[in-house]
């Protein structure tokens, strides 16, 4: 369970989060959606302690973020950041094997290698394992970073706009994989998305943010309505139900 | 603006005449023949040299920025200054008793070659990365600087190297700075092609359709830049950053129209070098801090501010 | 990789041997200790600057900026100038060498951290801006140092000159021992950071996610870098060759070579590889310059020449890639 309490955050003088209270239950996939500048990514990066908390509290599985040691938290929570630029010239397999770092701190054992192999296979990276990161496509790189987070083998997995720059096939593949992780391995997945339809199609729960606050939350069917789209996103787009899931007509 | 600047420059120039180790009060000029001689032989040439060099360097900077289409370059640190020193060094080694005009020609030629080399080097750089140009230019200058040091070591001329690489005005006397008047003429000559250079800054194709002979104008501009740079190095030694800082400040006020900007650039350049020299004379009197050192400190600081600001704008 | 490291080590041993015995003029009893001291200094300096550069490039996430380029060695002279000035030339001479050395290292580490923080703010995450700001910062430090040296008393100035412009020709025994201790300690600590540095190279966010937040590690690495550069500079003076161009590209050549000879992201490989290559370049280079060619020019000038060219090639190649 991720518990967020009275979270305020500003960058420079601009307030980004204005009192966020949120509980994300264990298991399943929760998607954070909202218009640009709503504070989704900031919220995610605070949970992932990529930014320092200015005021408020976050607890992940009982660990208070900011107080628990970085190393311990890295065994509870993995994050795939939005910015994935690596200065070192790395092979795909090397990158993914860093997922084991929180567990072995530089001295990998047999079990670690096995998990890395599994991650490479699961994310269909086996044929690419000896390729350098600057030699593969953006989608493949994105997948490699997802595999890195997967190999970290944590109960919580956070992804910040993982679909950026992905074509439809790559985006669907990645979302399906995440769905599998939630269903088969019981991991708790929190994902920031800007495409509502992907969120509605794959997530169990949606958290809608606007102006640094939680505007709505619940199942996709409950949350995605004409009124919500109008109020939160400020545009009139119709919502239809397709196979029991809401779809926003653009 | 221009009148104010001229007035300020005149005031500073007068102050400069009466600043130095030997105390000379303005009144002494009328009473004391020795004081008159001091001013005539040393202080006046020094003041003029500072102003001429400053004006010339500022103009070369502006022109080079226009040719490179980049605000962060100037010839003195981008290889032309170092090459000018290399030219003098080589001619002194080959022809020990070479007359001053030969040194002048050699250093101008070397500066010219290196400026052309730099242009060829930065031309293919992508315009989306404006900071790549100064980076390449600085390192290019550094490499040529290393060649200079190498030659100087091999030729056992290290003790002279400082003279050319660190610009200083303490040695300026009547009869030793007059070459700078040629630099002044070369700088002034750029006024004649100022309009065509401005057109060039709109892009070569645009300039060509407007009837500008791009090749010839570019060549003329590079020759002027090289000659001015070389003459300053020959007479005073290298003075960095003037060509970088001054045009950047002037452009904020006068815009990119060279005909309007150049006089202001010259004025500001003269002022900055003169003030830096006076500061160097006054701050640790009776010792002197070379003008190049003072300007390096100020210039590098302003350079950092410019990079930061330029990046914020892009 | 270990095979390649072994070859590098062998090359170093061979060049060290050649350095010791080639072109002997004069009695061995004099020559051997004299040359051994110089050799030790060359190796120490090569290793220290190379390891410092490897760490610096990981901390700044770029492959071309080096501590010397951004004026860390000039910073040493700046600190020295300030110390001599505040203590006076005679006061400076009275304090024990060890204390002075420690004071220099401490002051330089503090200034180095401040400078680095400033550089990162100026760079704002852009690689080209980082390198350019680093170089201009280096020019500023050099200019400031020169300015201060003109401000102090001429006798103090002479003192600073004699302290900071020693070359490989004259190495003080005490200083050699002090530098050795400082460099050895810093190397051990750097070695212990090797796995964490690997993680740091993944970028700030990824490193944080893996439980290795960059800020503290960067600080630790920077202090080690400052100590390594300061100790090396204390031994042989700044590698700057005069003029107002960028200073030495020694570290740049070394890391570029290290990435070619031992292509790996692991600091467990990069650190020893760069250390060996750095020592080989200095020992071998000095051997060629001094013994074979009989050149007057200090090695650093040639390194600057070649290094500048390598730098330009790296820049222009990176653009093409």
Automatic annotation (TrEMBL), chain A:
Top-level taxon: Bacteria
UniProt membrane topology term: Peripheral membrane protein
Span of domain ABC transporter: 2-236
Keyword Ion transport in record: yes
Gene3D superfamilies with a match to the protein in the record: P-loop containing nucleotide triphosphate hydrolases
Coiled coil: none
Subcellular location: Cell membrane
Record GO terms (molecular function): ATP binding; ATP hydrolysis activity
Keywords in alphabetical order: ATP-binding, Cell membrane, Ion transport, Iron, Iron transport, Membrane, Nucleotide-binding, Transport
A Gene Ontology biological process term: iron ion transport
Any single Gene Ontology cellular-component annotation: plasma membrane
Zinc-finger is among the record's keywords: no
InterPro entries membership: AAA+_ATPase (IPR003593), ABC_transporter-like_ATP-bd (IPR003439), P-loop_NTPase (IPR027417), Siderophore_ABC-ATPase (IPR051535)
Record-stated family: Belongs to the ABC transporter superfamily.
PANTHER family per record: IRON(3+)-HYDROXAMATE IMPORT ATP-BINDING PROTEIN FHUC, PETROBACTIN IMPORT ATP-BINDING PROTEIN YCLP
Protein name: ABC transporter ATP-binding protein
UniProtKB/TrEMBL annotation, chain B:
GO (cellular component) term, any one: plasma membrane
Family annotation (SUPFAM superfamilies): ABC transporter involved in vitamin B12 uptake, BtuC
Domain of life, per lineage: Bacteria
Broad class of where this protein is predominantly found: membrane
InterPro entries: ABC_BtuC-like (IPR037294), ABC_transptr_permease_BtuC (IPR000522)
Transmembrane residue ranges: 48-68, 80-98, 131-151, 180-199, 219-250, 262-283, 289-307
Coiled coil: none
Subcellular localization: Cell membrane
Keywords assigned: Cell membrane, Membrane, Transmembrane, Transmembrane helix, Transport
Topology term for the membrane: Multi-pass membrane protein
GO MF, one annotated term: transmembrane transporter activity
GO biological-process terms attached to the record: siderophore-iron import into cell
Family classification: Belongs to the binding-protein-dependent transport system permease family. FecCD subfamily.
PANTHER family: FERRIC ENTEROBACTIN TRANSPORT SYSTEM PERMEASE PROTEIN (PTHR30472), PETROBACTIN IMPORT SYSTEM PERMEASE PROTEIN YCLN (PTHR30472:SF27)
This protein's name: Iron ABC transporter permease
UniProtKB/TrEMBL annotation, chain C:
GO molecular function, one term: transmembrane transporter activity
Membrane-related topology note: Multi-pass membrane protein
Keywords attached to this entry: Cell membrane, Membrane, Transmembrane, Transmembrane helix, Transport
Subcellular location: Cell membrane
Pfam families from the UniProt entry: FecCD
GO cellular component assignments: plasma membrane
Transmembrane segments: 39-62, 74-93, 99-120, 127-145, 165-191, 221-240, 246-262, 269-289, 295-316
GO process terms (BP): siderophore-iron import into cell
InterPro entries linked to this entry: ABC_BtuC-like (IPR037294), ABC_transptr_permease_BtuC (IPR000522)
Protein family according to the UniProt entry: Belongs to the binding-protein-dependent transport system permease family. FecCD subfamily.
UniProt-recorded name of the protein: Enterobactin ABC transporter permease
Species of the source: Pseudooceanicola atlanticus
């Amino acid at each position: 369970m991720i518990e967020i309490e009275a979270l305020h955050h500003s960058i420079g003088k601009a307030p980004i989060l204005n009192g966020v209270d949120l509980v994300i239950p264990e298991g399943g996939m929760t998607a954070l959606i909202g218009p640009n500048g709503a504070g989704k990514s900031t919220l995610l990066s605070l949970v992932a302690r990529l930014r320092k908390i200015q005021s408020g509290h976050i607890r992940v599985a009982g660990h208070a973020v900011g107080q628990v040691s970085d190393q311990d938290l890295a065994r509870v929570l993995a994050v795939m950041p939005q910015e994935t630029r690596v200065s070192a010239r790395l092979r795909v397999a090397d990158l993914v094997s860093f997922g084991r770092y929180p567990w072995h701190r530089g001295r990998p054992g047999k079990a670690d290698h096995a998990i890395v192999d599994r991650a490479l296979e699961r994310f269909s990276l086996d044929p690419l394992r000896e390729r350098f990161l600057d030699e593969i496509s953006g989608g493949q790189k994105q997948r490699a970073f997802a595999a890195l987070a997967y190999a970290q083998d944590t109960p919580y997995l956070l992804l910040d706009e993982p679909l950026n720059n992905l074509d439809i096939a790559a985006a669907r593949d990645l979302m399906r994989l995440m769905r599998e992780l939630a269903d088969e391995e019981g991991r708790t997945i929190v994902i920031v998305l800007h495409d509502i339809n992907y969120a509605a199609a794959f997530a169990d729960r949606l958290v809608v943010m606007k102006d640094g606050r939680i505007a709505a939350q619940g199942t996709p069917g409950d949350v995605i309505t004409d009124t919500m789209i109008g109020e939160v996103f400020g545009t009139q787009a119709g919502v239809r139900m397709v196979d029991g899931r809401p779809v926003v007509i653009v | 603006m221009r009148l104010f600047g001229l007035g300020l420059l005149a005031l500073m120039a007068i102050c400069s005449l009466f600043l130095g180790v030997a105390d000379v009060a303005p009144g002494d000029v009328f009473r004391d023949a020795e004081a008159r001689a001091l001013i005539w032989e040393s202080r006046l040439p020094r003041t003029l040299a500072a102003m001429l060099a400053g004006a010339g360097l500022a103009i070369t900077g502006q022109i080079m920025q226009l040719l490179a289409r980049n605000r962060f370059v100037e010839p003195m640190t981008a290889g032309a200054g170092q090459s000018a020193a290399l030219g003098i060094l080589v001619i002194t080694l080959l022809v020990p008793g070479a007359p001053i005009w030969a040194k002048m020609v050699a250093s101008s030629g070397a500066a010219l070659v290196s400026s052309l080399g730099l242009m060829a080097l930065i031309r293919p750089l992508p315009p989306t990365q404006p900071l790549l140009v100064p980076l390449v230019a600085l390192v290019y200058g550094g490499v040529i600087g290393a060649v200079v040091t190498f030659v100087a070591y091999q030729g056992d001329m290290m003790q002279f190297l400082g003279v050319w690489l660190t610009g200083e005005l303490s040695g300026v006397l009547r009869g030793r700075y007059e070459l700078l008047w040629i630099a002044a003429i070369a700088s002034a000559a750029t006024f004649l092609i100022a309009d065509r250079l401005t057109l060039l800054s709109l892009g070569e194709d645009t300039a060509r359709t407007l009837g500008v002979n791009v090749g010839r104008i570019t060549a003329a501009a590079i020759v002027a830049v090289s000659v001015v740079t070389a003459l300053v190095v020959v007479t005073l030694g290298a003075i960095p950053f003037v060509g970088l800082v001054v045009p950047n400040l002037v452009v904020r006020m006068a815009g990119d129209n060279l005909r309007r900007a150049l006089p202001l650039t010259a004025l500001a350049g003269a002022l900055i070098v003169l003030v830096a020299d006076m500061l160097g004379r006054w701050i640790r009197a009776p010792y002197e801090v070379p003008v190049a050192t003072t300007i390096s400190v100020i210039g590098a600081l302003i350079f950092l501010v410019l990079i930061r600001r330029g990046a914020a704008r892009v | 990789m270990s095979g390649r490291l072994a070859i590098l080590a062998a090359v170093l041993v061979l060049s060290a041997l050649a350095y010791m015995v080639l072109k002997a003029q004069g009695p061995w009893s004099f020559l051997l200790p004299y040359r051994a001291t110089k050799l030790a200094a060359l190796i120490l300096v090569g290793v220290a600057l190379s390891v410092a550069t490897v760490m610096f490039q990981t901390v700044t996430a770029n492959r071309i900026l080096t501590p010397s380029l951004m004026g860390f060695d000039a910073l040493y002279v700046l600190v020295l100038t300030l110390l001599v000035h505040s203590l006076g030339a005679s006061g400076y001479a009275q304090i024990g060498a060890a204390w002075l050395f420690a004071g220099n290292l401490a002051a330089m580490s503090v200034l180095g951290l401040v400078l680095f923080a400033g550089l990162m703010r100026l760079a704002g995450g852009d690689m080209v801006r980082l390198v350019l700001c680093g170089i201009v910062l280096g020019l500023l430090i050099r200019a400031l140092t020169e300015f201060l040296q003109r401000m102090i008393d001429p006798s103090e100035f002479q003192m600073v000159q004699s302290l900071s412009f020693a070359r490989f020709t004259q190495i003080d025994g005490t200083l050699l021992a002090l530098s050795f201790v400082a460099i050895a300690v810093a190397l051990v600590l750097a070695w212990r950071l090797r796995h964490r540095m690997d993680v740091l190279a993944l970028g700030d966010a990824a490193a944080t996610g893996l439980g290795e937040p960059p800020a503290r590690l960067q600080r630790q690495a920077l202090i080690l870098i400052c100590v390594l550069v300061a100790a090396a500079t204390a031994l042989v003076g700044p590698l700057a060759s005069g003029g107002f161009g960028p200073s030495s590209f020694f570290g740049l050549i070394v890391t570029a070579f290290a990435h070619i000879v031992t292509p790996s992201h692991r600091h467990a490989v990069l650190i020893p590889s760069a250390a060996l290559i750095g020592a080989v370049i200095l020992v071998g280079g000095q051997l060629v310059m001094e013994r074979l060619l009989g050149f007057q020019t200090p090695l650093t000038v040639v390194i600057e020449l070649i290094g500048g060219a390598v730098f330009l090639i790296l820049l222009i190649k990176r653009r093409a890639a």
